[in-house]
Amino acid sequence: MQALTAISPIDGRYRDKVESLANYFSESALIRYRVMVEIEYFISLCEIPLPQLKQFDHKLFDNLKEIYLNFTIDDAQRVKDIEKITNHDVKAVEYFIKEKFDTLNLHEYKEFIHFGLTSQDINNTAVPCSLRDAVHDVYYPLIDELIAKLEELAEEWKDVPMLAKTHGQPASPTRLGKEIQVFVYRLTRQVELLKKVACSGKFGGATGNFNAHHVAYPEIDWTSFANNFLTKKLNIEREQFTTQISNYDNFAAVFDNLRRINTIIIDLDRDFWTYISMTYFKQKIKAGEVGSSAMPHKVNPIDFENSEGNLGIANAFLDHLSNKLPISRLQRDLTDSTVLRNIGVPLAHTVIAFKSTLKGLNKLIINRAAIESDLEENWAVVAEAIQTILRREGYPNPYETLKALTRTNNKITQTSIAEFIDTLNVPAELKEQLKQITPFNYTGR
Prior knowledge:
mainly alpha, Fumarase C, Chain B, domain 1, Fumarase C, Chain A, domain 2, 6 strands, about 60% helix, about 5% strand, elongated
């Protein structure tokens, strides 16, 4: 496959932006994670030890681990070749490992590969491990970089007064840095919540009861074994009561959390898109870049638009994943299987979006003249300050008085505000205090 022949843009046009995710969500990666679970499970059976595995030389554990640590694309292809015969992907992994045991002269131990397990014991541990690693290795560094950039801009522009807009209309002035800090706060809180969601998996045999394990070795506490195996070997939590498949509730929590973070960034993208349209920001120009095929003057906010579009696709996938996966008819149906193979898709679109937002933020050039002009054109916003102080002083009907002044067809200016203040029946010192309030300093804390 070439980039130009790929059906999905994440494997075509955007492949270079999401290449790292192939290590976690490609078919080869899924097979490698399955092999890892199978090998670590066999090693754990040897460590009990099961009676038939007492003679297994523990010095060979490193040799077994090399099967997944040094897993190659050729190994993945061998599994796929076996699957053409078995028509079962996890069984193909089992047969692949048995072939490896043959090369290591471990024939007598082969039947303890996948002992007592069903395929979902492998899938529902391998996939959580892959998602955990992708989030840790790829997602967190990227969202941290985005938050750090926003913190940098918030600090740089913390003292820049700016007209606020509520309902699209001029409102009490704010500071540009503070408005960016809002997104820092929101994203930071959601990332903290995301990190608290447990990474968990199912491990309990055909219907979650260790039937096969118990009938073969009733003297072993298989629940404790499985809890320790997942916690100590796979570094995930074991779901204590399940059907044949994972409950997927923690997966749903992760996907919902990712979706909330994406929604916040959509909000950010739209705000900056609007600020650019208001000329509060200009954008750095790249030599040779074309903004429009017809209009030579255009420099479009394409990075924020690209981000918003990709986040929309990601959220549609994440919504379906979180709604669908926790539902399964009775003890198991197969609808989760094909859906689960797509968890890398929303992560890929999210990565593309984050990189686009970062690119857009790095291209911003603040246009202080436009921001200051907007403030100068909207002296009416100080009416809130004046009427609030008059309320404090017990002045009669201050809100109504300022409403009558500011809702006329006449333009409100610094001069007209000062003239209005002079008409008030208040002490001269208070009049002077009121005249000191401007759209540039009425920015709160």
